[in-house]
Structures are given as structure tokens and as C-alpha cells.
Amino acid sequence: MNTEVITISSEDYKETITNIKKDGFQMMVDLTAVDWFRKREPRFELVVQFLSVSKNLRKTVKVIINDENLSIPTITDLYPGANFYEREVFDMFGIEFENHPDMTRILMPDDWIGHPLRKNYGSGRIPVQFKNAPKVD
Question: How many domains does the chain have?
Fold first, then answer.
């Protein structure tokens, strides 16, 4: 199966996705983000994958997101299945999707502070108690 990868700016995102939909890519397969902390500037990149069943083609769109404004338009109006993917990216990376129908946390509690998949997020020290293990003080 042929895969085309294109890299665009966040300003071209909505127009590019609209054109991809018009080109016959019926399915948005995946949407996630990458944090390139200390590797690349700007550090965040959105990765969206599409599938055209009729043409037997895949397309991957990589979007460079500006660090000052971690915001990008939603594509839930074009691909309703993007709803939960966008909420997960918001929850884990802190990237907001403009005009999203329900931009709330999906995995973490509502009062959680921070975004756990950012590379500079602290790991913390939570003791783990295993079943039937002797308690250690």
C-alpha cells in the first residue's frame, strides 16, 4: 500500500485536510502528537493518518505546531472519529483544538495539573504495592 507523507504548517492544516477528504480519503485512521523536547524547535508535531479504501492509498500529514500558541483547528466536522483522538492529544500534550465540540480531558481527572506525555513532565514517586507482597516501610 502506497503511503505519502507531507509536512505542513498549522496555518495550512484545515485547508489541507479538507482537500484530503475531497481527494477520496474516507477514513482518518490515527491522530497523535510528538514532543521533540530538546531535539527540535518548535517542539510539538501533530501526526494524522488517512486511508482511501477505494484507491488503496494512505496519507500521513505531519503538522508543525507553534510553541507560543499550542492551538490548531479541529477536524471533527470533516472526520467525526477525530473527536476522541483530539481530546487525548489535548489531555496528554496540552494541544488545544479550536471549535472542538467537547474539549475536555478524556484520560486524566478533570482537576489534573499538567500533561503527562510531555517530555519535561515529572515522573513522580508513587509507591506500588503488589498483591501478596510483604509491606515495605
Answer: 1
